[in-house]
Amino acid sequence: MVSRRNRRTPTAAGLVLVAVAPLAACGGGDATDGSGDGTDPDAFTVLTANENETLEAQLTALAENQCKAENEALPLEHQKTAQADTVQKVTLLASQDALPAHFIAGTAMVQPDGDLGAAGMVLDYEELLTQEDAWDNVLPAAASTVEHIYGGMVSLPYQYNLEGIWYNKAIFAELGISEPQTFDQLIAAGDELLAAGYQPFAQGGAAGWPLTRLIGMYIFRNVGPDAMEKIRDGEAELTDPEYLAGAEALQQMAESGFFGEGFISLEPDAATAAFLSGRAAMKYDGTWMLSSINDETQNQIGVENVGFIPFPEVEGGAGTADQWPANAGAAMAANPDAAGPKVADWIACIAENYGQQALSDAGVLSGFRVNGEVTDIPETTKLIQEQLAEIDETVAWFEALFDSKSNSLASTNVTLLTTGQMTPEQYMADLQASIDAAR
Amino acid sequence: MNRVYGDRKTILILLLPTLAIYVFLKVVPVAWSLGLSFFEGNTLRGFEFVGFDNFTTFLSDDAALQSVRVSIMFAVLATIGQVTLGYLLALLYVFVLRKGSAFVRTAVFFPMVLPTVAVALLFRSFVAVGDTQGPVNEIINAAGGESVEFMASTWGTMGTALAMTLWSSMGFYAVLLYTGLLDIPDEVIESARLDGAGGLRMVRHVIIPLSLPILLSSIIFSLNATLKVFDSLLALNNGGPGTSTAPLTLYMYRTAFEYAEYGYGSTIALVLTLLCLVFTLTVFRSSRRRVED
After folding, report:
1. Is the pLDDT of residue A11 over 70?
2. Beta bridge partners of A47
3. CB of A202 within 8 A of CB of A274?
4. What is each CA distance from A383 to A283, A287, A327, in whole angstroms?
5. Domains of chain A, first to last
6. Are A258 and A281 in contact (CB under 8 A)?
7. Which of A20, A88, A121 sits opposite B257 (nearest CB)?
8. DSSP one-letter code for B39
9. CB count, 10 Å around CB of B85?
10. DSSP letters for A147-163
11. Where exactly are the structural domains of chain B?
């Protein structure tokens, strides 16, 4: 028996050694500066999310028209991935040195201390577009938002979204409710709507973020625009009373019945349908909802009845309602190793033409300058465009600066918070513990 | 022929290709994963040797321990349910329906061939509430009760998950146990009957002891399958509400692929393997003791 054990031990140790030894060679690459001095690949491969059909369609349209010369020099090729698999897919591709020229990535991945950012595997677009004399095509507000969220100009702003409260003007007029200026007025409006038999808000709780956004906005209005930077930098904690109030506010809204029956398993698309069919009076969402609002088949309440207001101020809070939450869509990074002259031409062409192409063809507001005239813009889109031009200061969203695990936790636990199975204190304490663990 | 099989060299030559494939496809990945448990990082960031840190982290990780509890609870309840229902169905096939059981066997087995994700979506729509209310809540409303949001509570989600698991898998266990019951010689049953055994006494003292080996195999099979439950709980409610129905497999998937922590993900996989091993050995040991008794 003893001799058998003796024989087994070195065998097992050998197996572990075989498994472990090659790992030592798998060290992270040295960080590079991210400038575009790479070698052109055989094709301009773009990896986008299955869920984002617009981007693929608009890039294809550019390849056939405005960027025809660039496409002939380096043909456009599309690769797709499920948005939920982005981190896994990009990590795998990057580790095999097989990143496409232009690719979707997770928010945390492209930040300076993220896996791609730290390894110098994301291109600095400002540097490249300045070299190409095309940097002027990126709107300063969009560039500022990208830099704020990602810690550098590492993503192209294919969208430039504001977030706020969409409301049904007809229902508000019917009940004589004016646009809420403070959070207390918002709650009062919700109570009035409930009493009149309307569902105050349509929020797709199944995705988590439509609910956590409300916590974040309350905190930004209560603490100020740098609220979440303070959490990131360890200067404040989510369990501090002024942050805790955000979770308490959301729980109060849910307990009052503001989100209607079954909101926990409601998908965001179904929530949009509830708002556009007049069943719900308000919806906190981004300006990406414009495509649904401008679609007559979806919008049964009429474009003229859709209003858009910022999340109201919290009385006594340090934030103001003109600090709009803004984002530039999912991160779309570029591979510095593949950024040769032809890829640089492609990216410059996109910067020059995407703004006009996306606005005229899909009604999408991007962070690129609209070069050329676009006619027939729907009224609501025009209003948002004007609103965008007036913005001086933006804020991000609740989880924007969280690590992946805390980001996921915020969304999954919000169901427990809104159903009263978790107290606001527990919710924020769990989240803070996760943030601390990732430091 | 005996000379050929008696030659150790020949045996080695014949076995070597299969053995090499087995080692390459099974042993190496398992050993690789075992090795990864002692590292932290991913293929992009690189790996750093952390010794037993991942294991100590696991023991103090509330989310991981909660996932262990979810996995064990689901495995135990699902195993009891599907083996019991499967056994009752098998008895029905053999002693009541007899040769006319083919149609019922096929009908009850049919859900087994449906994709788990489709079944999960089906059950999710059964218990839906709100604008697209499902039949379960319609019945509750018709009986005068208020709609219940099953997916908002741990027990509601777990109950739905168990119901869908039983619905889709009891037919499989019924067929498995049915083949075991067919092996019991008719003469034994006949002589037991002549000795006055009937109904429950026959099942308890004759049928169960004689079908014990296939029953134990079913339990081991079921425990191992349900301990590794993943797709049904993911598709049903994404391991929610919160993470209260997230099994160890889902936590492992999220850790490795969403949070890109391959080392800790491997540690969780190792714990899951050990869990399966412990359950299997426990059932084996208890069966051996029973046989010795």
Report:
1. no
2. A79, A103
3. yes
4. 18, 11, 18
5. 44-160+328-370 (3.40.190.10), 163-324+398-438 (3.40.190.10)
6. no
7. A88
8. E
9. 18
10. HHHHSSS-S--S--EEE
11. 61-292
The pLDDT score that the predictor gives to residue B95 is 86
Residue A76: strand pairing partners: A44
A28-32, A229-233, B226-230: the lowest-pLDDT one? A28-32
Cβ neighbourhood burial of A5 (10 Å; 0-12, 13-18, 19+): exposed
Residue A169: count of CB within 10 angstroms of its CB: 15
Two tokens at A52? 């984002």
Q: Interface pTM (ipTM) of the complex? A: 0.79
What fold characterizes domain B61-292?
MetI-like fold (1.10.3720)
pLDDT at A23: 41
Q: What is the pLDDT of residue B6?
A: 78
Residue B134 near residue B141, CB atoms below 8 Å? no
Taking Cα atoms as reference points, which of A195, A215, A187, A223 lies closest to residue A319?
A: A223
Q: Is the separation of the CB atoms in A108 and A114 below 8 Å?
A: yes
Contact A286, A160 (CB under 8 A): no
pLDDT in tens, A171-212: 999 999 999 999 999 999 999 999 999 999 999 999 999 999
Mutate to test the interface with B, among A264, A413, A427 (most CBs of B within 10 A): A264
pLDDT for residue A186: 97
- Bridge partners (DSSP) of residue A334 are A102
Tens of pLDDT, residue by residue over A94-129, are 988 999 999 999 988 999 988 999 999 999 999 999
Which residues, 6 or more positions from A75, have their beta carbon under 8 angstroms from its beta carbon? Answer: A43, A44, A63
Over residues A261-302, the pLDDT tens digits come to 889 989 899 999 999 999 999 999 999 898 889 888 999 999
Which helix (H) or strand (E) is A20 found in, with range?
Answer: helix A2-20
3-class DSSP assignment, residue B49? strand
**Facing B260 at nearest CB: one of A87, A264, A408:** A87
The answer to whether the bond into B241 is cis (omega within 30° of 0) is yes
Instruction: State whether A262 and B133 contact (CB < 8 Å).
Output: yes
Cβ neighbors of A103 (< 8 A, separation 6 or more) are A46, A47, A79, A90, A93, A332, A333, A334, A335
Chain A residue at shortest CA distance from B44: A95
State the burial class of residue A77 (Cβ atoms within 10 Å of its Cβ: 0-12, 13-18, 19+).
middle
